Amino acid sequence: MRSRLLAALMSVIGLLAVSACGGPAPAPSKIKLGFSAWPGWLPWQVAEERGLFKVNGVDVELQYFDSYTDSLTALSTGAIDANSQTLNDTIASVGSGVQQTIVLVNDTSTGNDQIIARDGITSVTDLKGKKIAVEKGTVDHYLLLLALNRAKLHEGDVQLVSTLTDSAAAAFAAGHVDAVGAFAPHTTTALSRPGSSPVTSSAEFPTLIPDHLVVRTEMARLRPDLVQRLVNTWFETLAWIEHNPDEAIEIMARRAGVSPLAYRAYQPGTTFLTKQENQDAFGSRTLHYRAVQVADFMVDTGLLYQRPVMDELFDDQFVKAL
User: How far apart are the C-alpha atoms of 100 and 192, rounded to whole Å?
Assistant: First the structure.
């Protein structure tokens, strides 16, 4: 689910490009929205197939990314206008100089990010000295560091094998490494290895891996009306899913490339936030406090060089207007 960008690879493309006549380009009339195969973001596929973007009067070009990392790059370089991504990945992007704004909390990860180990490894402490495949800099690398820290271990106490999340899950399933950090639906691949099981998951850190709708700051400034309609669509989609669960699961499972039965197993591991919970989180500065907490941990563990300025990271106007 979901990786941070290396600062050296960041490039920022401004939304206000200079036109041929020398003036600023017109404000965008639609939103290019990216998402990838995380259960908390697959409702966007439902919104597309059920025509809910059009119902809410917003022209959305929905783009699915097989690689979550590619979606982060696309938002940071201006190839898309909005993306669903984790808090820690957004902090990493902002820390490298990209202007991004969080306008919505989609969900929190409550079990669908996992560290899965082979038979005979039953705790995080048992990972000492073992080979662990993980996409370095990803949210599951972050989860691994959280778990190691709680077990009084450090990254140097394990052997990291850095690879993309889907390849990491496949390598573990094939028996090439002792453990893997992965998010659903890649956890299904990893758990196909006989005797494997999670030794920890995001359920043990239920507030530290929130997932957000993030837009380029220029988009929020130039077309707040479009962003508002996108936020409105999200909650209407959740309501539609609640009233049509079987059809919704068919749509999301198909996009994730798993069976509806497998997809149902992911449901407890992703907790969606309601309108009221979003309003409470933005209004109480809970999100800012959590961002500071996450950023400080990322600095302490080497995922960030320094904590970025985050005073304007969250824009509450859109959830307030719901």
Answer: 38
Cα 280 from Cα 263, distance rounded (Å)? 29
Task: Name the helix (H) or strand (E) containing 243.
Answer: helix 224-243
Would you place residue 137 in the very low, low, confident or very high pLDDT band (cuts 50, 70, 90)? confident
Instruction: Fill in the DSSP letter of residue 145.
Output: H
Give 109-124 pLDDT, tens digit per residue: 999 999 999 999 999 9
DSSP 6: P
Whether the Cβ atoms of residue 136 and residue 164 lie closer than 8 Å to each other: no
The 8-class DSSP code of residue 304 comes to -
Amino acid identity for residue 65 in this structure: F
Q: How far is CA 130 from the centre of its chain?
A: 27
The per-residue DSSP string of 44-87 comes to: HHHHHHTTHHHHTT--EEEEEESSHHHHHHHHHHTSSSEEEEEH
* Domains of the chain (ranges, CATH numbers): 7-108+208-320 (3.40.190.10), 113-204 (3.40.190.10)
Contact (CB, 8 A) for 168 and 115: no
Q: What percent of the chain has pLDDT over 90?
A: 85
Extract the tokens encoding 295.
Answer: 């950023």
Cα distances (Å, whole numbers) of residue 189 to 123, 137, 166, 182: 21, 21, 8, 9
Residue type, 294: V
CB contact set of 22 (below 8 Å; sequence gap of 6+): none
C-alpha to C-alpha distance for 215 and 75, rounded to whole angstroms: 8
pLDDT band at 243; cut points 50, 70, 90: very high
Amino acid identity, position 91: I
- The per-residue pLDDT of the chain, averaged, comes to 91
Place of tokens 């700051």: 217
Which tokens belong to 313? 């990271």
Other Cβ atoms closer than 10 A to 232: 19
